[in-house]
Amino acid sequence: MLRVVKSVKQSIQPNNDLENMMDIFRDMMNHCIRIGIKENCSTLKRMSILSYHELRNYDILSSYKICAISQACGILAKYKKEFKKNPNAKMPYITKPYITNCYQIKHNGSLLTIPFKPHQPINILLNNHTQQILSDDTLKVRSFTITALNISICISKEVETIECTKIVGIDRNLKNVTCGNNESVTFYKTNKLLSIKQNTIYARAGFKRNDHRKKKQYYKNMQNRLQNRTKQFIHKISKDIVTNAVQTKSIIAFENLKGIRKLYRKGNGQGNKYRKKMNGWQFYELQRQVQYKASWEGIPVVLVDPKRTSKLCPICGDRIQEDRQNRRKLLCINCGKSMDRDVIASMNIAHKAWSGSTHARGDTSEAKCSIFEEPMTEPKSSNYDDVVIRIVDVSKLTCRVGSL
User: Fold this and answer.
1) Domain-by-domain residue ranges, the chain?
2) Whole-angstrom distance, CA of residue 401 vs CA of residue 393
3) How far is CA 5 from the centre of its chain?
């Protein structure tokens, strides 16, 4: 059994009591940050000893004081990392009001009760979507975070890991996401993400009003709209990937693309437009959404080394070459097979994940299967002709598309 965590967010009506609590909470965090910088402290235990007695002048419950100290420790730890890289880094200071707590929270049907004063809690009305999610008896409300207009409720549950018998590899690109293995491959078109970003750039460039405040607010609204549309678009892809992984009992394998931004720095011999396009590629957002959705369903997610995933034949392991007529096609001279490079990459990612999860990495006498109870067998068919390829238009994604 694994404990998985996620949050549900909804809007709330402004409240004078909540606004007053958020202002007090912000002042407490800034007070703790000043103490931590003065005493060179970022650990929770020492910070509590140094600052808890100094927070007695704030008119708020003790549980919020403890959470303020914990939040300040996290901010100071981040500041220390930045200071090592840049000694001229700005000292942290909280400006936006918010409040968080993990004590004395109760869920009563359509109301969420949070502590306010002794024997005087605050009741927050939940919308239908939040009520539907919290109606599950297996869920537990762990904490909440309130901002000026929203509340985010952190929930958790105990999930039993699904015993998977297959592995599916995911290859991420600018214009598509390829998900598959030796049995079937699915293409998800992501061209729309490029057009969404390009339209946002054009809209920002068309703002001609000579007012710095209005321009800043307009840019902020356009950026929020871009992020919301992008997340919603990727949400459809990640949801479909996880749903099919649950149905087929498959482990999900991603390429570990950490550090890929270093390939597109200034001075690498690339054009400005190309570097701008590649640095704006949101490759991690899909991985983030798939990871938390898969963990919520009990599906493992693994990361593999992306090295040579598009250069080796998934059948014989020989090096493959580009087709002169079509650069998207890769040809294996040994097998005589030709297939799209993204399909080959997804199949190689799945094979790498299978090899890493079923083969020993140390003493052969202690060979164990880390994910499966029994090692996977070799695929019955490795012929490209048996691979079913599906193409999914995400903007119209309502069900699985049949084989072509």
Assistant:
1) 2-159, 166-396
2) 9
3) 13
Structure tokens at 210: 């000579």
Helix (H) or strand (E) holding 203: helix 191-205
**Going edge to edge, which strands form the sheet with 120-125?**
106-108, 111-117, 120-125
Contacts of 398 (CB under 8 A, 6+ apart): none
**Rounded to an integer, what distance in angstroms lies between the CA atom of residue 208 and that of residue 215?**
9
Q: The pTM is what?
A: 0.79
φ, ψ for residue 340, nearest 5 deg: -60, 140
Q: Locate tokens 């009001």: which residue?
A: 97
Q: 13-20: which pairs have CB atoms within 8 A and are 24 or more residues apart?
A: 14/148, 14/149, 15/122, 17/116, 17/122, 18/99, 18/122, 18/146, 19/97, 19/148
Q: What is the DSSP annotation of 319-378?
A: B-EE-SS-TTEEE-TTT--EEEHHHHHHHHHHHHHHHHHHS-SS-GGG---SS-SSPPPP
Report whether 159 contacts 363 (CB < 8 A).
Answer: no
Task: Return averaged pLDDT per consecutive 10 residues of the chain, 404 residues in all.
Answer: 89 90 94 93 90 91 94 93 89 92 90 90 92 90 93 92 89 89 88 90 88 91 92 93 92 90 84 85 91 92 88 80 72 78 88 70 35 39 58 59 36
Q: In the beta sheet, which residues pair with residue 391?
A: 187
Q: Taking a C-beta distance cutoff of 8 angstroms, is the pair 52, 65 a contact?
A: yes
Query: What is the sign of the dihedral through the CA atoms of 14, 16, 18 and 21?
Result: positive
Both tokens of residue 272?
Answer: 């400005």
Burial 274-289 (b: 16+ CB within 10 A, else e): ebeeeeebbbebbbeb
Contact 353, 180 (CB under 8 A): no
- Segments of 139-295 assigned E as strands: 140-146, 150-159, 166-172, 176-180, 184-189, 250-255
| CA–CA separation, 351 and 374 (whole Å) | 16
